[in-house]
């Protein structure tokens, strides 16, 4: 499998050091155009008219990417920090490790190439963690970070290798028949749980973000019956609501007048999915890498979190 490097940090540096009047167009050409395969599909989930006359810039704002309209000096300082830490090199190595661990070719998954993308995020745009990733586009692993210290004092960009593992796991999982549209909540829940368990398997549980670790098991046990009753739900708006929670959906424009709030805490689907898959692994002795190729219904049934009726409907 070929790894194609798309290090947009240096592209952004070129944008921020160019004359002010040239920056918007250079940003579109040098940062957003290489990312088009990732952001073009996102437009369909944006509120009507949200992308206006400049879709690339509108999506950049939605994704909280660093843009020319922000302070150039601060952006250049952040780019220096990431370059000095060789963040791109560290995550290329993490991607190579993930490829070796999952060995998709030997498991019937044909991935000829994978693009590794690193972008600078808008300061404060990605919450308290300051970093995120995306692996929903086949053949693409995108990372985004604004360098900052985490509550435990660690640099947040040191957690990115776990994100790289998580997102590449998605690439492999989403290439399987288990992941089809319209997808079920159960398939999505297990996909996020597998990705987090795989990241923990390679980089340790301490590498996981707050989206997985904030909610504790008693809170998740209380939520589990609601998820169990909705595991076969296929309305993508509702499915996303169960995964991301009300506040996140509202922040990114995912709640509309047709969709009432579900009363789901932020990122509850990530946390619950992680516990479901973790318990499945503990009960079966399988690794997260091995379980990446198991059907979601098998994982749900073997996790102990839900009861499966004789009719096959998870409850």
From TrEMBL:
Record domain DUF2268: where: 116-293
InterPro entries per the UniProt record, alphabetical: DUF2268
Pfam families, sorted: DUF2268
Protein name: DUF2268 domain-containing protein
Species of provenance: Deinococcus koreensis
Source taxonomy: Bacteria, Thermotogati, Deinococcota, Deinococci, Deinococcales
């Amino acid at each position: 499998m070929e790894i194609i490097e798309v290090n947009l940090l240096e592209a952004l540096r070129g944008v921020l050091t160019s004359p002010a009047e040239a920056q918007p167009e250079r940003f579109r050409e040098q940062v957003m155009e290489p990312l088009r395969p990732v952001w073009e599909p996102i437009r369909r989930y944006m509120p009507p008219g949200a992308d206006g006359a400049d879709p690339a810039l509108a999506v950049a704002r939605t994704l909280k990417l660093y843009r020319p309209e922000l302070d150039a000096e601060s952006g250049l300082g952040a780019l220096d920090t990431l370059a000095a830490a060789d963040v791109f090199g560290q995550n290329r190595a993490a991607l190579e490790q993930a490829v070796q661990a999952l060995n998709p070719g030997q498991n019937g998954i044909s991935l000829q190439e994978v693009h590794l993308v690193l972008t600078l995020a808008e300061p404060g745009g990605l919450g308290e963690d300051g970093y995120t990733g995306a692996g929903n586009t086949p053949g693409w692993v995108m990372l985004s970070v604004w360098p900052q210290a985490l509550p435990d004092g660690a640099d947040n960009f040191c957690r990115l290798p776990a994100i790289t593992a998580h997102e590449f796991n998605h690439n492999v999982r989403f290439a399987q028949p288990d992941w089809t549209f319209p997808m079920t909540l159960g398939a999505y829940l297990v996909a996020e749980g597998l990705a987090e368990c795989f990241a923990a398997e390679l980089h340790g549980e301490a590498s996981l973000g707050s989206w997985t670790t904030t909610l504790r098991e008693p809170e998740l046990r209380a939520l589990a019956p609601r998820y169990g009753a909705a595991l076969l739900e296929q309305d993508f708006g509702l499915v996303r609501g169960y995964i991301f929670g009300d506040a996140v959906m509202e922040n990114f424009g995912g709640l509309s007048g047709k969709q009432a709030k579900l009363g789901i805490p932020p990122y509850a689907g990530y946390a619950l999915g992680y516990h479901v898959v973790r318990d499945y692994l503990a009960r079966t002795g399988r690794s997260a890498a091995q379980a990446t190729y198991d059907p979601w219904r098998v994982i749900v049934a073997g996790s102990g979190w839900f009861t499966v009726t004789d009719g096959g409907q998870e409850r």
